[in-house]
């Protein structure tokens, strides 16, 4: 009988430690009922009963966590935007689209034809000293 009580006490201590750690590492958004500090006090002061209460009542499910959205996907954020902010944003988008269209138009222009007399050295087009001298060392 003493062995059974010793084993039960050991299991109760393990359960108590596990519930303390579980309660401590859960984010505050997953604590139901009272706050995180209150649940920690309940679990610590009422070792087995507090742990049972924690798992039955206090611990929220993972599916209840808040889903974060981008601001443009959040209806509440969009509802809070003022009309002037929307107009300002629309104007900024319009200017950026105009700049992009201008850059596209500049990139689509063919290069200007060069004058046949223009060479990098300033000479005539056929005055290249290196032509015809391939393979010779001089």
TrEMBL record:
Compositional bias (Basic and acidic residues): 87-98
Spans annotated as Disordered: 71-138
Record keywords: Cell membrane, Membrane, Transmembrane, Transmembrane helix
Residue stretches making up the Cardiolipin synthase N-terminal domain: 15-59
Transmembrane segments: 39-58
UniProt keyword Transmembrane helix present: yes
Subcellular location(s) per record: Cell membrane
Location (main, coarse): membrane
Annotated membrane topology: Multi-pass membrane protein
Biased composition range(s): Acidic residues: 99-108
InterPro entries tied to this protein: CLS_N
Superkingdom, natural source: Bacteria
Pfam family, any one: PLDc_N
Transport among keywords: no
Name the UniProt record assigns to this protein: PLDc N-terminal domain-containing protein
């Amino acid at each position: 009988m003493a062995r059974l009580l010793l084993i039960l006490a050991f299991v109760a201590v393990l359960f108590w430690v596990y519930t303390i750690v579980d309660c401590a590492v859960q984010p505050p958004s997953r604590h139901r009922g009272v706050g995180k500090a209150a649940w920690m006090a309940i679990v610590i002061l009422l070792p087995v009963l507090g742990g049972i209460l924690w798992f039955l009542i206090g611990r929220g499910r993972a599916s209840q966590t808040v889903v974060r959205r981008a601001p443009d996907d959040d209806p509440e954020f969009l509802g809070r935007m003022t009309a002037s902010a929307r107009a300002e944003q629309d104007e900024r988008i319009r200017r950026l689209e105009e700049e992009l269209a201008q850059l596209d138009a500049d990139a689509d222009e063919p290069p200007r034809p060069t004058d046949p007399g223009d060479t990098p050295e300033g000479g005539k087009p056929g005055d290249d000293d290196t032509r015809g001298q391939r393979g010779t060392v001089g």
